[in-house]
Amino acid sequence: MQLTLWTYEGPPHVGAMRIATAMREVHYVLHAPQGDTYADLLFTMIERQAKRPPVTYTTFQARDLGGDTADLFKNATREAFERFRPQAMLVGASCTAELIQDDPGGLAQALALPIPVIPLELPAYQRKENWGAAETFYQLVRTLAVKPTQPREKGGQPRCNILGPTSLGFRHRDDVREIRQLLEQIGLAVNVVAPLGASPQDLARLADADFNVVLYPETAHQAASWLTRNLGQPATKTIPIGVAATRAFVREVAQLAGLDPDAAATEAQARSAWYAKSVDSNYLTGKRVFVFGDATHAIAAARVAARELGFKVVGLGSYSREFARDVREAAAQYGVEALISDDYLEVEAAITAAGPELVLGTQMERHIAKRLGLPCAVISAPVHVQDFPARYSPQMGFEGANVLFDSWVHPLMMGLEEHLIGMFRGDFEFHEDAAPSHLGGAAKPVPIALPAPEPDKQEGPAAAIPAAWAPDAEKELRKIPFFVRGKARRNTEAYALSKAVPVITIETLYDAKAHFSR
Amino acid sequence: MSAVIPIHAGSGCSDAPVLKERGQREVFCGLTGIIWLHRKMQDAFFLVVGSRTCAHLIQSAAGVMIFAEPRFATAILDERDLAGLADAQDELDRVVKRLLERRPDIRLLFLVGSCPSEVIKLDLSRAASRLSQQFMPQVRVLNYSGSGIETTFTQGEDACLAALVPVLPVSMQQQAPELLIVGALADVVEDQFSRLFNAMGLKQFAFFPSRSSTALPAIGPQTRFLLAQPFLGDTAKALEARGARRVASPFPLGAEGTTAWMQAAGAAVGLSAATVDQAITPARQRAELALAAHREQLQGKSIFFFPDSQLELPLARFLSRELGMTLTEVGTPYLHRQHLAEELAWLPAGTLLSEGQDVEKQLDRCRAARPDVVVCGLGLANPLEAEGFTTKWSIELVFTPIQGFEQAGDLAGLFTRPLTRRQLLAA
């Protein structure tokens, strides 16, 4: 038993629903008790879908447990087929139905429906949502993709499939549009996008492509490896998040398509690269950032933060255990230890200990950051309704890089604003506790009687205090602009500790400053 | 002494046939009740023993509330727990111990059963009594089931309150009747009712559940209880088993419903109708005034209810009698004929009542009826809007204060708003 207040991922059958809902002409019959229909509203409310998810629930109740749950399942499946006439069906059990041990696959087979019926084995007590999505997509591909009888003719326009986008995926809708446009720009044709918007008939012609573009390994890695093994289609490895990764992605794709990689890459344009170079962004240098999310987005975000925005990555983690190794490798590059956990209290503790100035994470980290008074931007699912925006806002490709720049820098004080606050520090309407003007609305005129020796909120409670501060040294410390004060305090304390100084005086403060400025 | 409510035998829908349906149900399970119950009982903690699905459900339903160090959590069963029952009990002890160390302010802990825990027959009542022994007097541990196989949405509150009834203290008072208001109400509504009771001169009254588990109301044979919510079948039965007697009444929705409910409260403790009337008249008149504006907009409009909370019948009665709406179908997950007798009598004859659900067939009926407003859950609301229907999502009717005189206008407003919005956007 695991005590849980919040879960990053739903159960695996929700992953299966994400695939079924993303596709057309597929229907999912889920053996489940009354109440499991709650998952419908993730799609109708959070993603604001205008249609119901194509899922029929058997809705068994306590009085059914005596023996006719199997009949209930068969009736529900038959009726769903007659009503919706899908091209293919998925059948499976939710966590409770897994315990009552009806066999959805066998029961559905006995109905002898004239369409492919794919049984899903989703172990609800071991696996989670993303695994369920990956497994479902893999089973669909394995069943429906037709192996061509003769090899495809060479020549003609190179073609690829785009694999991975699902329903309830973070910015999947716009990522697909952005990447499709990019691929078409360099001379590729997109054969099938799946599962988002694909029908079973579309899956049947996956083999008509030369290779696969894997956008989200969490959902598509398994299916793509099967396609590599069985149809000889190579798959892309680069995730095109950020300018550099997008360029690398273009090269990789061009190579797979037999196009000139250099010619393809010259088209590359993104405003974010210039924005990051502009002098206003100087203040972003070395900003401490903590990154958490699914493995794909967390790894990509850390790379963009460090290499394209000049932040310092002070924490990197993911709830995707399936990709823990990749996250650990990435974390090693920034000299931090990866946090692999699905316990948000653990994440909260890690953020507190790392004392970042910006948090990039999921909906949960947004709330943790709010509680700790830290700026934050969302980079990964799970997300709430506001992160399924009406406007175009991909994460991938060059427009994606622009979106990342805006949405990550926005919660921070912009350079000029920070500079002004440094200059007019203590001014009654322009003080360090004022939220950025674009976030907190009007600054509340706060009396400037600054509470005297109080630890800076930027360093976080976990920073142990090794030596006491003399009052005048504390006062001197407050003269240092607040956005570097946390660092100054940490450095001074570390210095005092290393020199075994019991009380930090003004002398110690400036000794430390000199020591660290070498 | 129920002469205050003129009910004639055979009137309204009292003897109307009810369409009983079975099939796919688009409803919440009883676990959802935790979301408003934990707000009401401020020193209680709700620990669901279930699967990741249960945790996911509560977090989806609770929205952002989950972050304020909420007083609910899920002990997620894993493979090891499914292997052997003895082990699961030990695991539960470990989780509860850790939880109570973390939250020393908790006085009442509910172990809430779910579908998985019911199906594997994990004995939560035994666990509750064992843990109670261990942690009393600091913490009392109780259990109830909020599973989908046994409870629908608001029935979770019924199961929770019914579990609490046996631990209510015995009232020492022997003569004059005491009034107990049963069903979680918003604090603001509770305070309004208290003021009206005081104005009536009603001295001995209490609310159940109480805001603190250390101040539970006492009950005994002189207790008269009045239901504030229509979904409390088991709680009523448990109260009756302890000698308390139910006071029949329509539910306090709208000016008329609240008047009848107040009259029933007064009559139960021997107050005259005139005394009650005098105390409530100003509030009743305010409510009627507030409703007038909405009546203009809703008069003659038709409405269709999908089943959700068991509030459907009282709401339909309010909308038809006080606002002039036409009822097409009124669906309810469960129809307690005895508790809803007064409501049934007030419903217009010929209303189609349905109990249970086969959602696809009900959607077909809804499309054929083409109602002006559809009351339904969030899973159906946007898809129906996309088909051109105006919807009112039903869960809001459970989370918003709607009972009593001062809320009558707000309640009507919940139904006029989607219509107004549709007009505005079409213009």
From TrEMBL, chain A:
PANTHER family given in the database record: LIGHT-INDEPENDENT PROTOCHLOROPHYLLIDE REDUCTASE SUBUNIT B
Enzyme class label: oxidoreductase
Protein name, as recorded: Light-independent protochlorophyllide reductase subunit B
Catalytic site: 280 (proton donor)
Keywords in alphabetical order: 4Fe-4S, ATP-binding, Bacteriochlorophyll biosynthesis, Chlorophyll biosynthesis, Iron, Iron-sulfur, Metal-binding, Nucleotide-binding, Oxidoreductase, Photosynthesis
BP-aspect Gene Ontology terms: light-independent bacteriochlorophyll biosynthetic process; photosynthesis, dark reaction
Residues reported to bind substrate: 415-416
Domain Light-independent protochlorophyllide reductase subunit B-like C-terminal: from-to ranges: 469-513
Catalytic activity: chlorophyllide a + oxidized 2[4Fe-4S]-[ferredoxin] + 2 ADP + 2 phosphate = protochlorophyllide a + reduced 2[4Fe-4S]-[ferredoxin] + 2 ATP + 2 H2O
Biological pathway: Porphyrin-containing compound metabolism; bacteriochlorophyll biosynthesis (light-independent)
Signal sequence segment: none
Cofactor note: Binds 1 [4Fe-4S] cluster per heterodimer. The cluster is bound at the heterodimer interface by residues from both subunits.
Cofactor requirements of the protein: [4Fe-4S] cluster
GO molecular function annotations of the record: 4 iron, 4 sulfur cluster binding; ATP binding; metal ion binding; oxidoreductase activity, acting on iron-sulfur proteins as donors; oxidoreductase activity, acting on the CH-CH group of donors, iron-sulfur protein as acceptor
Automatic annotation (TrEMBL), chain B:
Protein name according to UniProt: Light-independent protochlorophyllide reductase subunit N
Protein family: Belongs to the BchN/ChlN family.
Gene Ontology molecular function, alphabetical: 4 iron, 4 sulfur cluster binding; ATP binding; metal ion binding; oxidoreductase activity, acting on iron-sulfur proteins as donors; oxidoreductase activity, acting on the CH-CH group of donors, iron-sulfur protein as acceptor
Short name of any one Pfam family annotated for the protein: Oxidored_nitro
Catalyzed reactions: chlorophyllide a + oxidized 2[4Fe-4S]-[ferredoxin] + 2 ADP + 2 phosphate = protochlorophyllide a + reduced 2[4Fe-4S]-[ferredoxin] + 2 ATP + 2 H2O
InterPro entries to which the protein is assigned, alphabetical: LIPOR_BchN/ChlN, Nase/OxRdtase_comp1, Protochl_reductN
Subunit structure of this chain's protein: Protochlorophyllide reductase is composed of three subunits; BchL, BchN and BchB. Forms a heterotetramer of two BchB and two BchN subunits.
Statement: the UniProt record of this protein carries the keyword 4Fe-4S: yes
Pathway connected to this protein: Porphyrin-containing compound metabolism; bacteriochlorophyll biosynthesis (light-independent)
Domain Nitrogenase/oxidoreductase component: 29-412
GO biological process, one term: light-independent bacteriochlorophyll biosynthetic process
SUPFAM superfamilies: Helical backbone' metal receptor
Keywords: 4Fe-4S, ATP-binding, Bacteriochlorophyll biosynthesis, Chlorophyll biosynthesis, Iron, Iron-sulfur, Metal-binding, Nucleotide-binding, Oxidoreductase, Photosynthesis
Binding-site residues, [4Fe-4S] cluster: 29, 54, 115
Entry's cofactor comment: Binds 1 [4Fe-4S] cluster per heterodimer. The cluster is bound at the heterodimer interface by residues from both subunits.
Cofactor: [4Fe-4S] cluster
EC class name: oxidoreductase
Its job: Component of the dark-operative protochlorophyllide reductase (DPOR) that uses Mg-ATP and reduced ferredoxin to reduce ring D of protochlorophyllide (Pchlide) to form chlorophyllide a (Chlide). This reaction is light-independent. The NB-protein (BchN-BchB) is the catalytic component of the complex.
Organism: Roseateles toxinivorans
EC number from the UniProt entry: 1.3.7.7
